[in-house]
Design a protein that fits this description.
Elements: H1 8-18, H2 21-28, H3 35-45, E1 48-49, E2 64-66, E3 69-71, E4 75-77, H4 90-100, E5 105-107, H5 115-121, E6 126-130, H6 136-148, E7 154-157, H7 167-172, H8 197-205, H9 214-220, E8 226-231, H10 234-242, E9 247-250, H11 264-275, E10 281-284, H12 290-298, E11 303-306, H13 308-340, E12 353-354, H14 356-363
Parallel strand pairs: 4-11, 5-6, 6-7, 7-8, 8-9, 9-10, 10-11
Antiparallel strand pairs: 1-12, 2-3
Helix pairs in contact: 1-13, 4-13, 10-11, 12-13
Protein name: (S)-2-hydroxy-acid oxidase
Family: Belongs to the FMN-dependent alpha-hydroxy acid dehydrogenase family.
Keywords: Flavoprotein, FMN, Oxidoreductase, Peroxisome
């Protein structure tokens, strides 16, 4: 009998064994040379700790509040598409694990279970991730369905005017899955003999004209708070505050869009400084350890979103696997806080980490 995984990377190995190559590559792969894919993880390794000692850490509290919702730790589930490729129960299993862990799940609009199925499966706090489609009426309908089914916020993903070049999917001739939320609304069948069906589909249905002015349209059709996901610069963060969004997710789309975009952890601080505490900044990209979560919080994120590790847990062991991945990261975060002298999340400060730039300065 194989031993139980003790960390997230071991779940990735199990997922690779469990999944057909086409599906594993779809989840694990990035754009083009996969430079940013490697950097998202590697950049964390270049940040070290400045732990404080002789602090009472007999009790460590990792709970927090996001947009007014209490969650057990600052670790949320990122929007990722097509969970049924990983496990037959799909997003329902993921949502149940989120509920069990008392955290927030962001359901992808490209999910393989409907908004309604996920809503009735459990009582997790759920946000809905939205791509704006060329058919604005269909996009509006998705927003209304999310609102009607108790989703608490919209996460507008803004870094996909076209799909990034994911060469593994092209080689594997990746087939686009049935997008349950679009059933009966849009045809998602595309004829494409050359390469990835996903790419052809996105380029056919997503609205590449989406711009800052369209946020007024989105706000006019919903009362839900809107977070923008896909910001990597202070300039865009300032614009996001100006148009009145409720939060930002610093993200390079899991390095699946523009290769050689920076590792998200390397630009987090720039965005945090630009926002000046006016709205929450969440973080997405490359989290594989509780130490990574701590580093993101020290650099100003209010919470992190975890994508691939959740999928790997789901592929390896279904709902239980997702729960284990979240719990592992949470336990590692708690230990990191104890060993760094931080009894609560508000005790984690910028002075607890040393970035690569500061290490270079200290050598000069």
């Amino acid at each position: 009998m194989a031993s139980e995984p003790v960390n997230v990377l071991e779940y990735q190995k199990l997922a690779k064994e469990a999944l057909p190559k086409m599906y594993y590559d779809f989840y694990a792969g990035g754009a083009e040379d996969e430079y940013s894919l490697k950097e998202n993880v590697e950049a964390f390794r270049r940040i070290t700790f400045r732990p404080r000692v002789l602090v009472d850490v007999s009790r460590v509290d990792v709970s927090t509040t996001i947009l007014g919702y209490n969650i057990s730790s600052p670790i949320m589930i990122a929007p990722t598409g097509a969970h049924k490729l990983a496990n037959p129960e799909g997003e329902i299993a993921t949502a149940r694990a989120a509920a069990a862990c008392n955290t927030i799940m962001v359901l992808s609009c490209m999910s393989t279970c409907t908004v309604e199925e996920v809503a009735t499966s459990c009582n997790a706090v759920r946000f809905f991730q939205l791509y704006v489609l060329k058919r604005r009426d269909v996009a509006a309908l998705l927003v209304q369905r999310a609102e009607r089914n108790g989703y608490k916020a919209l996460v507008l993903t803004v870094d996909v005017p076209r799909l990034g070049r994911r060469e593994a999917d092209i080689k594997n001739k990746m087939v686009s899955v049935q997008l349950k939320n679009l059933d009966g609304l849009l045809s998602t069948k595309v004829a494409n003999d050359k390469g990835s069906n996903c790419e052809a589909l996105v380029n056919e249905i997503f609205d590449a004209s989406l711009n800052w002015e369209d946020l007024a349209w989105l706000r006019s059709i919903t009362n839900l708070p809107i977070l923008i996901k896909g910001i990597l610069t202070g300039d865009d963060a300032i614009k996001a505050v100006e148009v009145g969004v409720s939060g930002i997710v610093v993200s390079n789309h899991g390095a699946r869009q523009l290769d050689y975009s920076p590792a998200t952890i390397s630009v987090l601080e720039e965005v945090v400084h630009a926002v000046r505490g006016k709205i929450p900044v969440l973080f997405d990209g490359g989290i594989r350890r509780g130490t990574d979560v701590f580093k993101a919080l020290a650099l100003g994120a209010q919470a992190v979103l975890v994508g691939r590790p959740v999928i790997f847990g789901l592929a390896a062991k279904g709902e239980y696997g997702v729960k284990r991945v979240i719990d592992m990261l949470k336990d590692e975060l708690e230990l990191t806080m104890a060993l760094s002298g931080c009894p609560s999340l508000k005790d984690i400060t910028r002075s607890h980490v040393r970035t690569e730039r500061e290490q270079l300065h200290s050598m000069l």
